Amino acid sequence: MNVDKAIRTRRSVREYKDLPVEDEKLRQILLAGTYAPSAMNNQNRIIVAITGETAKEKLNAAVEAEASEETRKRICARNGGVFDFFYGAPALIAVLSTDVLYPEADCATAIENMALAALDLNLGSCWINQLTRTQNAKVKSIFKRFGVSEDAVIYGCLAVGYAATEPEKKDKGGKVIIVR
Ligand SMILES: Cc1cc2nc3c(=O)[nH]c(=O)nc-3n(C[C@H](O)[C@H](O)[C@H](O)COP(=O)(O)O)c2cc1C
Hints:
This protein is α+β, with helices and mostly antiparallel strands. Helix content is 38%, strand content 15%. The longest helix has 18 residues, at 103-120.
């Protein structure tokens, strides 16, 4: 898919088919993340793809256990009464960094790269914020078990899977100024 088309047609997908993401496609998406720019090319990102049902369930339960009542209600309301902070997507990709300069930006560039790569592979995605900068001890211990160092901070996640519904593609109205 041409880059312009990918940028202009990508939309957040919040309903997924009960189908796994093929290993080769997942690898391509993760590779796209690693090619994203980072401040001074620090490459201090750690990209963790979680596809196992047990790991996903444990993460979801850990987030639900610490969610405020308001957040719990909001997340349950958008998933037919069930708490699922990544919409039942078959893959959740967390992006962490150990950097101190611009780690949030370093992770954001990777997340957008992966969202566009997913689209190119006919997959949908949605940025997920519930783990961002989390201090949730259970979540941190789960990531430690994944092999992530304790100083790494999660700056964002991407849910990835086959879209069950086509998201609406309204035009966007961002402000742009060209100075000549
Ligand atoms: C930093 C950031 C955090 C976001 N967090 C969430 C989230 O937790 N859950 C969610 O459903 N969408 C989340 N989104 C997706 C936005 O809601 C979405 O990009 C926005 O509504 C525009 O829609 P579009 O992606 O379809 O163009 C997030 C997006 C960004 C950039």
